[in-house]
């Protein structure tokens, strides 16, 4: 579904008179913004914000899913706020039940398997919980919600005296190499993978590139700690 197209001369009745359901919803969502007074957040520049309105017009329920993969639209049912944690909680529960302890790798695998099953089968409330995360608005809220706790945890636990000795090496790995990698990856993400056509700006591309440019230092440091790895290497990874 896309809100592109000029329906400014259409009435509400004419919108629902269109033959194609997709155009009915797009026309209705646009028509809501041209009423008097119009919203200052117009569909031309805030298309993602109007998608939730379009989902409401589509009468989405847990038994009737609406997903438009080409436009990255996952309509969710407006239920309770705690529904967003159903998918995350289920992944943790299944992993802990099967393997007896929390492990980032098994949590990732369990979540991935649930995501693949959800792609093919309607899982009801679970599918709705997944849709809430996939259609999170604004999208960069996902970065702000998950990155700070992970980074702060390592910063609090780091051996400061050892870090002072390895600070130069840590700076080289954490900034110089990451910046160079991000500069190379950003245009690839925007133009080669086509995310610019999906509404991503250079800021979004650079932010995502900076996330995938380095290796998962937190996971590597955790494995080194469990395996009794050298303290210098652990501090270097956390730094």
Write a brief structural summary.
With 239 residues, this protein is an all-alpha fold. The protein is built from eleven helices and two strands, in the order H-H-H-E-E-H-H-H-H-H-H-H-H.
Average pLDDT works out at 71
Structural class: mainly alpha
Low-confidence runs (pLDDT<50, min 5 residues)? none
**Helix share, percent:** 55-70%
End-to-end Cα distance, whole Å, is 44 Å
The biggest beta sheet reads: 2 strands, antiparallel
Our count of domains comes out at 3
Element string (H = helix, E = strand):
HHHEEHHHHHHHH
According to DSSP, the number of beta strands is 2
* Shape label: globular
Rg measurement, Å: 23 Å
Number of helices: 11
The order of strands across the largest sheet is: 1-2
Strand content range: under 5%
Domain Cation/H+ exchanger transmembrane: 93-239
Membrane topology: Multi-pass membrane protein
Subcellular location: Membrane
GO cellular component, one term: plasma membrane
Could you walk me through the main structural features you see in this protein, from its secondary elements to its overall organization?
There is one protein chain. Helix content is 63%, strand content 2%. The chain is mainly α. It folds into 3 domains: 12-58, no CATH class; 81-134, no CATH class; 141-238, no CATH class. It has a two-stranded antiparallel ribbon with strand order 1-2. Strand 1 (67-68) and strand 2 (73-74) form a beta hairpin. The longest helix is centred in the last third of the chain and has 33 residues, at 160-192. The model has no long low-confidence stretch (mean pLDDT 71). InterPro entries: Cation/H_exchanger_CPA1, Cation/H_exchanger_TM. It is found in: Membrane. Its main location: membrane. Pfam families: Na_H_Exchanger.
């Amino acid at each position: 579904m896309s809100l592109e197209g000029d329906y400014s001369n259409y009435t509400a009745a004419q919108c629902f008179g269109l033959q194609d359901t997709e155009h009915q919803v797009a026309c209705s969502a646009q028509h809501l913004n041209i009423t008097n007074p119009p919203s200052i957040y117009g569909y031309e520049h805030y298309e993602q914000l109007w998608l939730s309105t379009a989902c409401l017009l589509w009468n989405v329920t847990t038994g009737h899913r609406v997903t438009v993969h080409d436009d990255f639209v996952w309509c969710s049912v407006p239920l309770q706020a705690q529904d967003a944690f159903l998918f995350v909680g289920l992944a943790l529960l299944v992993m802990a039940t099967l393997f007896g302890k929390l492990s980032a790798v098994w949590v990732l695998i369990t979540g991935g398997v649930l995501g693949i099953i959800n792609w093919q089968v309607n899982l009801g409330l679970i599918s709705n919980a997944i849709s809430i995360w996939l259609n999170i608005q604004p999208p960069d809220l996902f970065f702000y919600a998950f990155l700070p706790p992970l980074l702060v945890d390592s910063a609090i636990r780091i051996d400061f005296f050892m870090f002072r000795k390895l600070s130069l090496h840590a700076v080289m790995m954490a900034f110089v190499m990451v910046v160079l990698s991000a500069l190379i990856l950003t245009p690839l993400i925007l133009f080669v993978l086509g995310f610019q056509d999906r509404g991503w700006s250079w800021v979004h591309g650079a932010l995502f590139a900076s996330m995938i440019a380095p290796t998962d230092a937190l996971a590597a440091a955790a494995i080194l700690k469990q395996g009794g790895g050298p303290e210098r290497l652990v501090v270097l990874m956390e730094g």
